[in-house]
Amino acid sequence: MKTMIAALVATVSLSAGVMAQELAFDRARDNTPVLYFSGVQSELAGGATEVLVLGTPHLNGMRDEIPLADLALLLNRLEAFAPDLIAIESAALFNCDIVRRYAEIYEGVANRYCTDPTPALAGLDLDPVAARIALYETLRNLPDTLEPAQRRRLAALFYATDDANSAALQWMHLAPDERVEGDGVNADLVQRLNQRLGSHNETVSIAAVLGERLGHQRLHPMDDRMSQIAYVFSGEALSPTLREMWQQNPVGMGPIRQALAETLGSPEAVLAYYRELNSAALQRGTVDSDFGPAAQNTANDNITRHYLAWWQARGLHMAGNVMSAAAAEPGARILVIVGASHKSYFEAYLDQMHDIELVDLDTVLHD
């Protein structure tokens, strides 16, 4: 399967022009960083923190191509990696609080990327600040074994603090007859959590399912939606300029992604698909067909550089949030589940840390 897909990618790449010259990056001797931090510090207390970055399509848009049952082999390989922490592409920390508070600046961001915490806040009879304080106090004092009532309350606290995916993980830990009202969970929240368990979103179908298998108590949201501030002065010209740039670019990834999707249809095919999606060739193609051209485009006063700035700022914040999550567990194994276009940037950012050792995904997802 892997060989077949590799041949397919090569064929479609040639027809689409993807094998055109790669974008060049100048490396002038007099403007390099004073120090390079790539790699892992040789003397490191507690050992390196191992990070595996899984680039993924957004599975909500691939319900027909990738049924939940076809994730079985992928989940088995990730379970064997046995991460201690799982980081997900979901709004982190106080992101939703801020984009709601400044809705006139972050227009539409909260509605698109944040769940409504109102049902959980009502069930807990707490305001957002009190709910967040209660969550951290609870997490600092978690017992080794949680009773159903404790899990229900923890699910409500996570949902109330804009972490619906960790709430779903706690709900998964409960037996079906324990997924009931009480302990801060009202009827509205029961319905929302039950519905979320069937989500195709990779934050649930991969991350929460894997977290439940491994006995994790939470997921770690890392996405940064405050980076949308990069667009505040972009005006209406950015979107049409980007569309025109993508249409004119001869290095198009759409045909390759479509060809890969057509190979799906079994757990084995899904595993091969993920290996190819995370390959150096496809990662290079993403840069050469999207963010590289955005850096080069001169239309409308170089406005596509706004898009590039947003992408890079968002990625840097996400990498920083992973480092914050890693702080409490030096030497842990971390699985980062992120949109495939982020993978190459994410690995480059994390490789600059003193104590991060990147794990080869293809080795983990071996046949």
Structure write-up:
The model is unreliable at 15-20 (pLDDT under 50). The chain is globular, with a radius of gyration of 21 Å. It contains 18 helices and 5 strands. The protein has a domain at 1-7 and 44-92 and 224-367. The longest helix is centred in the C-terminal third of the chain and has 23 residues, at 304-326. With 367 residues, it is of the alpha/beta class. Helix 8 crosses helix 10. The protein has a 5-stranded parallel beta sheet, with helices on both faces.
Put the structure in a nutshell:
This protein is an alpha/beta fold. It has helices at residues 2-16, 72-81, 95-101, 109-113, 118-124, 128-140, 148-160, 164-173, 187-197, 202-214, 238-248, 254-261, 267-277, 280-296, 299-302, 304-326, 343-350, 361-364; strands spanning 49-56, 85-91, 220-223, 333-339, 356-358.
What distinguishing features does this structure have?
about 375 residues, five-stranded parallel sheet, alpha/beta, about 10% strand
- Strand order in the largest sheet: 3-2-4-1-5
Assembly level: single chain
Percent strand: 5-15%
The rough form would be described as globular
Largest sheet: 5 strands, parallel
Output the number of helix runs.
Answer: 18
How does the helix and strand content classify structurally? alpha/beta
* C-alpha termini separation: 9 Å
Helix content: 40-55%
The string of secondary-structure elements, in order, is: HEHEHHHHHHHHEHHHHHHEHEH
- State the low-pLDDT regions, or none: 15-20
Mean pLDDT across residues: 92
Number of separate strands: 5
State Rg.
21 Å
What is the secondary structure topology, with strand pairs?
Layout: H1 2-16, E1 49-56, H2 72-81, E2 85-91, H3 95-101, H4 109-113, H5 118-124, H6 128-140, H7 148-160, H8 164-173, H9 187-197, H10 202-214, E3 220-223, H11 238-248, H12 254-261, H13 267-277, H14 280-296, H15 299-302, H16 304-326, E4 333-339, H17 343-350, E5 356-358, H18 361-364
Parallel strand pairs: 1-4, 1-5, 2-3, 2-4
